[in-house]
What does this fold into?
Amino acid sequence: MKIIILGAGQVGSSLAENLTSEANDITIIDKDEKTLLALQDRLDLRTIAGHASHPDILRAAGADDADMLIAVTDSDETNMIACQVAYTVFHTPTKIARVRALGYLSHPQLFQQEALPVDVLISPEQLITEYIESLITHPGALQVLDFADKKVQLVGVKAYYGGPLVGHELSTIKTHMPSVEIRVAAIYRRDRAIIPQGNTVIEADDEVFFVAAPKCIRAMISELRRLDKPYKRIMIVGGGNIGKRLAQALENDYQVKLIDHNTIRAHDLAKELDKTIVLNGDASDGNLLTEENIDNTDIFCSVTNDEEANILSAMLAKRLGARKVMALINRAAYVDLIQGGEIDIAISPQQSTISSLLAHVRRGDVVKVHSLRRGAAEAIEAIAHGDKTTSKVVGRQIDDLKLPYGTTIGAIVRGNKVIIAHHNTVIEPEDHVILFLIDKKYISDVEKLFQVGITFI
Amino acid sequence: MQFFVIQRILGILLMVFSFTMVPPMVVSVIYLDGAFEPFFNAFAVTLITGIVAWLPVKNYKNELRLRDGFLIVVLFWTVLASFGAIPFILSTQIEISITNAVFESLSGLTTTGATVIEGLDKLPESILYYRQQLQWLGGMGIIVLAVAIMPLLGIGGMQLYKAETPGPMKDSKLTPRITETAKALWYIYLTLTIACAVAYWLAGMNAFDAIGHSFSTVAIGGFSTHDASMGFFNETPMVEVVAIIFMLLSGINFSLHFLSWRSRSVKAYLVDSEFKTYITLLMSISLISAIYLYYTNFFITPERALLHGMFQAVSIGTTTGFTTHEYYNWPGFLPVLLLFTSFIGACAGSTGGGMKMIRFLLLLKQGMREVRRLIHPNAVFVIKIGGKPLSDRIIQAVWGFFSAYVAAFVIILLALMLTGLDQISAFSATAASMNNLGPGLNEVGLNYSGVNDTAKWILCFAMLLGRLEIFTLLVLLTPAFWRR
It folds into this structure.
């Protein structure tokens, strides 16, 4: 697929990194030649220096026959205009733009074909806010990913000693919880993936990924670890877009405190937020945290722009007694370094943004993609089309599918019904199939599986 | 340095290279020239060495680093030149020392075209064909070929590609993906070769000569299947015309061919300033040669003066090195003028050698800028190529390249004279090797068989230095490169 990426910032370059490894033709445009040079040395792509929305630059980047344009420059306006140019001048089929400002986002009519023709809008702040929200509503989970309009969720949990299921085979889940339908998609033990079988034994410290309907999730988490009490008191650091949105989303159900070091910003926040207590101060100030009862805080969530500050203040909060700490971290190397140590959960904004972009890059009818484990694994939701003769999946039992290595089918959503996959489940047309791939290398095989033969129109 | 990864890739490349011994075997079978055995043995030796090198380390699949790239490229050219010499050594039809065999093989691969073999016309066809094929493989670059056909190099392919391709601006890719770029280059190369072979054949060569010469023409090599080089076809002037056209075409930056082929128009050529300089320069040199030859009564008819003047100017200017005539015996300043033209060489991104037209153009512009700065001390001047400003980084690199080239030249020249060559021979031999030209003046005008062995090894080094554009090879000689 020929893809043009505008903006070689964090999202742009990690997206490029993700996509070049899958044999796509990537061209990346940015104003800064130095960044581009560094990218070109590292990745197999073409770079063009120039203003991203100018038609001549886009033409030089091959917009004439591009399949997709992804505008992720730091300017909302450039992104939107680039989509307009791509639509009017080059007739690019898919145009994706990142738009941050709520002012634009709150007017969806702006992004219609006759106005600003953006096919897909991405707002990383919103994605991150939703992600953190889902983590807070599921105590104990490391990751909660939605599929099929939240009818099914993929949850990552770390198993601890004392969990009733720890030390037992997976096949005993049924006897433990007869009423709960779940399927374990993958287990990571010391960073190595294990393909779950009926006789696989869950050990302590395993990271278990399972697929289930939302109502069953709590029960399953409680099987793997002593269940956290529902969270009540939350402390957020950083009153930027993410912090503010998070506070807005949570303040009605939780006791939220928000810390920002900028006095003016803190005042503005205090005006906009109703129930949240806005604190003006430095999150690395231990006295302030103690003063504000850090030892009774359930969740400490550091989401400032400065990732080093996030890491340090989260570590400090943990030391001072916060029950669970999260930190927003951009750099993949840092995520590896700190997750599971002092800091409970590392939140990576790129991961979320890239996940939502990947869904549009995948061939076959893939509606949702979640990139996991720094992009090594992937969970996707694909729709099965066609019938028994044209499709390789429809009308077949899951056992009979030629799934590539390390791929498991977790669940199937048929209409409004969630069916947890069993070996004899038969896939019907228009089913949403949720798959988990341990190794992203095999993604093209899965895409092929879900592509319909040419006879199907 | 990841030596196991390097060894693995080297092994794979050797295995692939071994299969280039198969076409000569086929030729040998067709002509029953009795040279089947050396090629088969060389094939077996190369293949087995490749397997032996690859097998124990086949699981080391780390990504290549920048330094590994340099080492692989240099190693690959030297190792291939050594293995490429095996058929010459094994062949019973020619008596050739190891030094001479390696020289011949490296001269072929680097598209220099300097030969040590006398009596080409009596050699078996398969060996003649093999020499031409060596040039053809080296022309576009073996690494580029490897990148095109083997995706296994991964992103590391880019490092190799950059270390091998000629020209100052190595970051410009034709297509987003390196393998696609390499493939496009080879398609263009192949198309040019086929067109050239057909044209030669129509012009009156037999099929064997047509294919053989098309290889060395498009590769800007200069090997011929005859001792008299292109002079063998003196009776058929059309052959020379075809040669001129295809040498000119192959000396153009291949990305221009790509662009014009994709947009189906010749506009890409006409707006390119490197191309314009290239054509202007070669045409002026051709005219000067032709007029001078005519007025000194070296040739009686103006047509012959023009044809030979132009052929020789293009052949030397693009660094091909075909000769129709003993140009080193031409009157007055012509031989030296032609030799100096070869320093400028062909365009960047072509198969030709020399310092490349674009660098020459940049040096010229840079010189002009200094002059204009003296006139307008407060003015700001930006160096532009084709209307686009160039970063100072590239201009600095060009100056660095120029000085390194001159320094290397002087050292090699002195070293050659130390081994006993006279000044003209040493000067022209150095120029002909570093510019990948081939024939020099005086003692090395016809061939290099009279040169002593030490000088040959020095010239081998010079050829490789020229083909890899100095720095790729030079960087290996610095202690900083080997420091951990």
